Amino acid sequence: MNKITKIRLIPFMLGLVAAGAAPGQTAAPAPPATPTLRLSLTDAVTQALSDATQEHLATLSVSLAQARADVALSALRPQASAELRVASDMVNLKTFGFAAPGFPTVVGPFDVVDAHVTAAWDVINFAARRRYEAARAGVRISEAERRRIENEVAAAVASLYVSVERSRARIDEIRANVELFGKLRVLAFDQQKAGVGTRIDTTRADVQLARQRQALLVAENQRDLAQLALLRAVGGDLGTTDVVLTDDLTKPQDDKPTVQAALLSARQLRPELRTLAEQQRAAELAEKAVRAEKLPHLTLSATGTESGNYVRDLFWTRSLNAVASVPIFTGKRLETQIVQAQIQRQQLAEQQRDLERQIEQEVRQALLRYDNARSRVALAEQNIKLADDELEIARDRFQNGVANSIEVDNAQNSVAAARDTRVDALADAAQARFDLARATGEIRNLIPGQTGPL
Q1: What is the DSSP string of 254-296?
Q2: CA 258 to CA 451: how far, in whole Å?
Q3: pTM of the model
C-alpha cells in the first residue's frame, strides 16, 4: 500500500472510530436542554427562602417556642388522672403499732381492688401565669429571629442578583468594545493600504482587539460564576445555562430618604431591636415569676375512689381538698433567682443601647455610601461622553493623516476604561440601595406579604 492510499484511508478510519467499533452500539443520547430560567428579584428571594436551611431552622425554632408556651399554659389548666390498682397484699401489724398476744403479726395475703379518679386545679398560681407569659415572649423572640434571617437571606440574594447584573452589563460593554475596536482595526488596515499608515498601526489594532476578546472571555467566565452562585442560593438547577434577570437595577431611583426617616424606619423594621425588646420582656416576666412564688398558692382537688377486696364488693369514697400554701423559707433560693433575673435585664438593656447605636451607624454609613455611589454614576456618564468625543476626534485625525495610531490607541483605552467604570458605578449604586434597605429594614419589601412594621 503506497503512501497516497494510506492518507486516503485516514478519514475512513476516523469515521469508524467516531461511529464506534462494537456492532449494534449507538451513540449516547445528548442531555436534555435545560429550560431558560426567568427570575425577578422578588422571585429569587422567595425561592431562596423556601430552600434556605437557616430559614427552615428558624421556622422550627418558632414551633418549638410555641410548644414550650403550650406546656407552660398547661400548668394553669385543670389536671385529671385515673388509676386502677389490683393487688394481693400482706400487712405487718407490728409496723402500725399493733402487737397483742393472740393476734398474728402478719395479716394476709388478701386481695385489694382500688380504682380512683383525681382532679386538681391551681386556682391561684401567679408564678405559673408569669412563666406562661415569659414563654409567650419566647415565641415572639423566635419570630423576630426568623424575620432577621429572612432579611439576611433577602440581602444576600440581592447582592448575588447585582453581581449577575454587573457581569452581564460588563459583557455587553466589552462586546461593544470588540465591535468598535474591530472597526478601528479595519481603519488601520485601510490606512496602511492607502500608504498613510504603517504595519505597527495594524499590529497595534490587532493587539487591542485581541485584548478585548480576551476580556470578553474573562467576563463571560465571571458571569457564569456569578450565575452559579445565584442558582445555588435560590435552589435552582445548577445546569441552567440561560438565566434571564427581569429586573433592571440600573434604572433611576427615587431620592434617598432623610436621615430621620431612615432611622425611624430602622427602629420600626429591624428585627434585631424587636428580639432584644422581647428578651427584656421575657427577663422581666421571669423575675416576676420568681417573686410570685412568694405569694399564696391555692389548689383545689377532688378524688373519687371505688375500693374493696373484690370487684363485686367495691364501695365509693371521695375526698375534696382546698390547699393554700405559701413558702416561708427557701434557703435564699428565690432571692438569688431574683438577683440573677435583674442582672440579666441589665445586660439586655446594655445590649439594646449598643445595638441602637450600631444600627444608627449602619444607617448613616449606608446613606453616605448611597450618596457616593450616585455621584460616581453621574461622573461615569460624563467620562463616557468625554471618552467617546476624544475617540471620535482621534479617529478623524488618524484617518486624515494628522495623527498616528498611538493617539487612537490611547483614546480606545479611555473608552474601554470609562465603560468599565460606568458598569461598576451602576452596580455599586444598586448594591448601595440594597445596603440601605437592609440597614433600614426595608429589605423586607422584597419578601411578598412581609412588609410593614413588626
Answers
A1: PPPPPHHHHHHHHHHH-HHHHHHHHHHHHHHHHHHHHHHTTS-
A2: 20
A3: 0.72
Please check whether residue 134 is in contact with residue 428, taking contact to mean a CB–CB distance below 8 angstroms: no
Please give the sequence-ordered ranges of beta strands (E in DSSP) within 282-391, or none if there are none: 297-308, 315-325
> C-alpha cell of 238?
445548577
- Measured distance CA(168)–CA(110) in Å, rounded: 91
What are the structural domain ranges in the chain?
A: 81-93+110-445
CA pair distance 452, 454, nearest whole angstrom: 7
CA distance 261 to 364: 11
In DSSP terms, which residues pair with 325 in a beta bridge?
297
Q: What residues contact residue 130 under an 8 Å CB cut-off, 6+ apart?
A: 285, 286, 288, 289, 292
User: For residue 191, how many C-alpha atoms fall within 13 Å in the half-sphere facing its CB?
Assistant: 27
The answer to whether 315 and 306 have CB atoms below 8 angstroms apart is yes
Contact yes or no for 231/238 (Cβ under 8 A): yes
* pLDDT tens digit sequence for 250-287: 776 667 788 999 999 999 999 999 899 888 988 888 88
145-177 residue pLDDT tens: 888 888 888 899 999 999 998 998 889 888 888
Number of helices (H) and strands (E) in the chain: give both, helices first: 9, 6
Q: Are strands 243-245 and 37-39 parallel, antiparallel or unpaired?
A: parallel
- Judging by DSSP bridges, how do beta strands 79-92 and 243-245 pair with one another? unpaired
Tell me the CATH number of domain 81-93+110-445, given options 3.40.50.2000, 1.10.3720.10, 1.20.120.140, 1.20.1600.10: 1.20.1600.10
DSSP assigned state of 401? T
- Rounded distance, CA 351 to CA 340, Å? 17
Amino acid at residue number 48: A
**Residue (of 72, 124, 131) closest to 291 by Cα position:** 131
Instruction: Name the β-bridge partners of 85.
Output: 114
- The answer to whether the beta carbons of residues 244 and 163 sit under 8 Å apart is no
